């Protein structure tokens, strides 16, 4: 028997030996992984597949949608309608939740996704990705009634039962957690199968690499400016070491680098839109990425509190994100709390 561990074998072992995931969740994850394979084929076609460019439409965020945004969203919806494990879905590309119609098999789970994150990179051939998060339907609140409503989704990130992303880059890699660490699966295109290429992924607690969009510096709050200034001061500064900067402007790619070699990713609040807590979305970007990072030994806060403890009030709410190597995230968070004390 091949010593290669497939996604199915990994999930069956998580189900049987660790008793961590029920069969329905295992099958749901496999449906999502198959959808990511299909998205990867469309992404890889690029100009040859006539899938590049804008679709002349806007999503709920008011952002112009790329053709591939819509294709990826449709692939995930269609795959999961027949999957039989979902009660409802929510997507960055859809205004409201999609309750699985009665004509399809119903399930216990809620799936949220950003079908294609980093869309601005599609036309310039830079890595993009699909981010997903799975919750269980709520039964803890009598006010929550069937059929499923948006209120079912408004659970803190610590309630997730599965989370992951698929990065469409030089390799197509699925990165997943079901609460037993982080595993990475690389797509074997000849076989069309996901092969376990790394298990128990660990983020170093310290780093010399930060990721932030420096062009927004003049808009940052003082704690973020203090942290970045100290990084830029290098060996001669208070940190006593030189730092490197990376910014791919594709969260999936930046987080994948951090899971692979450490670092800190920051998309903080800034004064361009003072009434918005940040640019990134809590439910289908910050929560899944935050859980993955924590499962790999890192940390994820909004600058003041753990992202996974935040109780959502809106499906598409935004959040400030500081995540990655634990000691760096703790330092940025400390700077925010010190600034609050003197405010
Ligand atoms: P900016 C992509 O649009 C995204 O949502 C994240 O993937 C990425 O980290 C961020 O926005 C990039 O934002 O302002 O640098 O283009």
Automatic annotation (TrEMBL):
Cofactor binding comment, as recorded: Binds 2 magnesium ions per subunit.
InterPro entries assigned: FBPase_C_dom, FBPase_class-1, FBPase_N, FBPtase
Subcellular location: Cytoplasm
Spans traversing the lipid bilayer: none
First-level EC class: hydrolase
Location (main, coarse): cytoplasm
Annotated positions binding Mg(2+) 2: 114, 117, 285
Keyword field contains Chaperone: no
Amino acids binding Mg(2+) 1: 92, 114, 116
Domain Fructose-1-6-bisphosphatase class 1 C-terminal: start-end pairs: 203-336
Cofactor: Mg(2+)
UniProt keyword terms in alphabetical order: Carbohydrate metabolism, Cytoplasm, Hydrolase, Magnesium, Metal-binding
Enzyme Commission code(s) on record: 3.1.3.11
Subunit details: Homotetramer.
Protein family per UniProt: Belongs to the FBPase class 1 family.
Protein name stated in the entry: Fructose-1,6-bisphosphatase class 1
């Amino acid at each position: 028997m091949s010593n290669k561990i497939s996604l199915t074998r990994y999930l069956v072992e998580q189900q049987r030996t660790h008793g961590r995931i029920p069969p329905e969740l295992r099958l749901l994850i496999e449906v999502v992984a198959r959808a990511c394979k299909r998205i990867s084929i469309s992404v890889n076609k690029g100009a040859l597949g006539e899938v590049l460019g804008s679709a002349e439409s806007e999503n709920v965020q008011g952002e112009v949608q790329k053709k591939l945004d819509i294709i990826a969203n449709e692939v995930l919806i269609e795959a999961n309608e027949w999957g039989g494990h979902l009660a409802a879905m929510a997507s960055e590309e859809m205004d409201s939740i999609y309750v699985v119609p009665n004509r399809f098999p119903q399930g216990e789970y809620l799936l949220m996704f950003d079908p294609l994150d980093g869309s601005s990179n599609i036309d310039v051939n830079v890595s993009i990705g699909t981010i997903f998060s799975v919750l269980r339907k709520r039964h803890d609140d009598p006010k929550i009634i069937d059929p499923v409503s948006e209120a079912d989704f408004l659970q803190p990130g610590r309630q997730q039962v599965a989370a992951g992303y698929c990065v469409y880059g030089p390799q197509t890699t699925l990165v997943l957690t079901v609460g037993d660490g982080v595993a990475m699966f690389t797509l074997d295109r000849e076989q069309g199968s996901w092969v376990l290429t790394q298990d128990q992924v660990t983020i170093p607690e310290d780093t010399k690499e930060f990721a932030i969009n420096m062009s927004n510096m003049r808009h940052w709050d003082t704690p973020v400016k203090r942290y970045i200034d100290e990084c830029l001061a290098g060996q001669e500064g208070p940190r006593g070491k030189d730092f490197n900067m990376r910014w791919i402007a594709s969260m999936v790619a930046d987080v994948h680098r951090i899971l692979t070699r450490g670092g800190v990713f920051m998309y903080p609040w800034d004064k361009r839109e003072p009434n918005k807590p940040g640019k990134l979305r809590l439910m289908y970007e910050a929560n899944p990425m935050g859980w993955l990072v924590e499962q790999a030994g890192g940390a994820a806060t909004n600058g003041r509190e753990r992202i996974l403890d935040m109780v959502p009030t809106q499906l598409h709410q935004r959040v400030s994100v500081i995540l990655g190597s634990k000691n760096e995230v703790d330092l940025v968070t400390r700077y925010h709390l010190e600034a609050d004390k003197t405010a």
